[in-house]
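Researcher: Next entry in the queue.
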Amino acid sequence: MTDGSARAFLDRLFSAAVAAAHPSTCLPPALPPPPATGRLILLAAGKAAGSMLEVAESYYLDQHGFDPARLKGIGVARHGYGRPTRQLEMVEAGHPVPDAAGLAGAQKALDLAASATEEDLVLVLLSGGASANWIAPAYGVELDDKRALTKALLRSGANITEINTVRKHLSRIKGGRLATLAQPAHVVTLSISDVPGDDPAVIGSGPTVPDPTTLAEARDVLARYRIDPPASVAVALRDTANESPKPGDAAFANAEYYLISRPSDSFVATEQLVRDAGYEPVLLGDNLEGEAREVAAAQAAQAKELKAAGRKAVLMSGGELTVTMRGNGRGGPNQEFALALAVALEGASQIYAVAGDTDGTDGGGGDATDPAGAHVTPDTLARAAAAGLDPAAFLANNDSTSFFEAIGDLLAPGPTCTNVNDFRAVLVDP
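Model: Structure for this entry, 430 residues:
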């Protein structure tokens, strides 16, 4: 392949991964029948909340002719990820750092859940990002304290399971509390997974499922990463009233949970494209975790080995990598992976890569215009040198966005309105 055709092929793989997880594809077959007599209450949160709410509203109103007077609900998505709805409220809120819009939207969702009766169906449409979008701090914890804690956790290198363990014990909606509040209604959750292992207790911090984690484990996370929390957070994490409902709790007797899309589904779609193009798909896993630069170094070594063996292949991986912030630059795990990969490949010919977050944004300041990731080509380092850029210095400063922005290699599809986490592909074309 030429540089241009290789980049286009990798972009096509990324687009296929996103399309396989879009609610317009995966949601309609999973939607349950509307209730016979009561209300249908739609509660959506996360980066796919807008598209999920849009699809579900059309499905019930148009295909089922459901009485609009019996349809209630609200969706809370990341800023820039809202979609047009006809009668249900759509709110755009902060992510990854929560804001006042998310606070207000979560309260409306809680109020609707609390109003549910045994004749109602509460349909929860959940996707990655819900932990930040549905922000309902435990009593005594202010929004500013939650914001400060979120920033500290994101910079610490903690993984998503650890972060959500803390979140679930500082919330009135996470960790099964939404399902508890919706009793005695029938609660059905349809979820798009964005976490390694597809654990319902971690996706969106599990608002409708039992929480196996404890207050003590939440405190341990903060201690492990040497995070000194705001005083109100420290108090809340020692208050037994903030312990979450556990497996076996009667609150979940009338609650159902279904995964409708997961990272593995996206790789099924992309593997076929790779084969059709005459390459060998090498799936390294859809649930990788770890430091982005360390994973990149390992994959660079694997790509070099494939090239040396003369194998035409595409290394593919998903999951959620982390970045321990040591500098003050801009970027996210996918861009840092791409920069570290370029450094480790040392300009090796015939190896290309793309790394991007399927939600359309990777790290950044929370704007919908943030890049999703970046491309790597054999001449990445040569073009950087010609522009007077030192890749190692940018990597040390965690400033991958500035590096790829300067050489025109950012991946910026804009909001995709879904999220099954990272998609990385390293093309070896000897």
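Model: The first helix runs from residue 3 to 20.
Researcher: Noted, moving on.
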